[in-house]
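Protein in question kept underneath.
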Amino acid sequence: MKNLNKFLITLLSLVALSLAPVASIAKPADSGTVSLARLIDIAGKQRMLSQKIAKAYFFYGQGIRADKTRKQLFDSINEFDRNFKIIRKSVDNQGVQDMLVYIEMAKDELATLAKQPYSKENASLVLDYSETMLEGSQDIVSRLEDMSKLKKEAIVDLAGRQRMLTQRIAKYYIAYQAGFRDHNTVEQLKKAVKEFEDAHATLRKAKLNTPEIKAELVKVDRLWKVVAKFYKDVERGGLPVIVLATTDNIMTTMNTITHQYVEALGS
């Protein structure tokens, strides 16, 4: 079983990389037309959920706020499935449809692992599958962005990516505490922290910012100051409950900001 899982992860990664980018064409979903900005928001949320699922798996496996993190784990899997269906129905492009096939395969494997008892071997696979889901979801976001001639929806992608980074940071933070103390874990964490801080500085200067968006970005500033020191000194560890709660608060605030950008674009 272990070798089969490893083979599937490798296969998914190789096939995903072989899919050349092509322009995407959106079509109306069953419930009505889905705007480009809204589709980018939904596809961007899939990036976040890929990391949130893995993060919740680790927190739950470590017995940290077990009831809450177990619920978050399975709620996130269900939300990923709902968003997946919207994208599949709303985007008429073979490249996107092919990518969705491989994302779904990785998600199904991860969902199966989520139902099994926590083990370091299973946790290692969860990390791998979450990376495959992230890579595939990012590819879809990029394809959707290619549709925009004015690139005005790029602000939605940037804000939406912040949601993902909060969960990615927390994922690697708790993975380190769970015993994944290799060089890659630390480097991925530090890289995600820097990307978050750089993107936040860019968002603070965005011309599209309304007074409401500015207020939410200030809220992110305050929350970030609470947990940034833990991320940057991961080797020291400690206070995982505060990290969990504060990181999720930042994610929720960034989700609000992303939706505000969608509205500001008139979508």
About this structure: The mean pLDDT is 87. The two ends are 46 Å apart (CA to CA). The chain is about 80% helix and 0% strand.
